[in-house]
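# nightly structure sweep
# worker-07 picked up a monomer target from the shared queue
# config: single-sequence mode, recycle default, output format = structure tokens
# input follows
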Amino acid sequence: MKIFVKNLDKDINELQLEGLFTPFGEVLSTKVVYDKITWESKGFAFVDMAKKTEAHNAIEALNGKEVNGRELLVQIAIEGNR
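# output follows
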């Protein structure tokens, strides 16, 4: 299940993001979104977890949690048409 994470500190990388979600279950991938010109984080990311129940537990535990002075917004990612 794909999760959307917003309001990330710009210094958080994929490995650190994975570390936040791993206690809740198997993390298949993490993707911090970077600006294509400056390579600075845009402050949001996606996390893909193996099981829906683990993803829901992570969302419940991490939504609103303060990380590096910023309150995270964590929710199910809504995928658009491709």
